[in-house]
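Sorry, I am new here, but would you mind making up a protein's amino acid sequence and the tokens describing how it folds?
***
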Amino acid sequence: MIRELIKKHKAILVLFLLFIVHRSHAQFSIDAETGFAFQDYNHVRIPNETGTFFNFNGDFDIKGPVIPFRTRIGYTFGEKNHVFALFAPLFVNYEGAAPRDIQFQQANFDAGELIDGYYQFNSYRLTYRRDLVQDDRWTVGVGFTAKIRDASVRLENEDGLKDRKDDFGFVPLLHVFTSYTLPSQVKFYLEGDGLAGGPGRAFDFFLGTRIPLTERTDLKAGYRILEGGANIDEVYNFTLVNFAVFGVFIQW
């Protein structure tokens, strides 16, 4: 009876055993970071053909500190294959007097008017990476990232005149990773997504270290650069943000 059941459901048993083996080599991780953001420039002209060019970071003051955060969930299988899901929101508030007359979308703001500005660039990403080199010291991997951008630019004056431009779209990126591990298990690594071409570009790279606290928990610290934008009919916007980063990495 048992032999007949095994023969009858042999394919199912094989798939079940493969699933057990696969799970035994799988690993999950959470990578959470925060820190401080320092904006270099944020150039805007909307619409591109008829709007007024201005630099959010040079023409206005940043209202309050910019404290970003991002969370990434990872799944490793077959030791060399990694899948990551990232949520990385970013928003900056500005204030100040308009340095010149500004035409933005359908609104016209006069020079000297007090303006409240808002810039948002939220990022949702799904990444696959394959490690090509993996030994006791070095790990080198490449992959690709599917990114969804959720961007918004807004201006408003004291009289309630306001306008905004929202942009929601898909961006394909290349992904790279390189790390070197010391005998103490302290790791130095470079990781990021990027691609340039056509009307725009996008770069998001981290250079830093992970210091083990426990067998499953590391502290991370380093520098992140976020740069990019688009030059199309409706929008001209390029921004550069530098980050001082610290966070925690947990795997199980």
Observations:
- Confidence is low (pLDDT under 50) at residues 4-9, 11-24.
- The radius of gyration is 23 Å.
- The chain has one domain: 28-251.
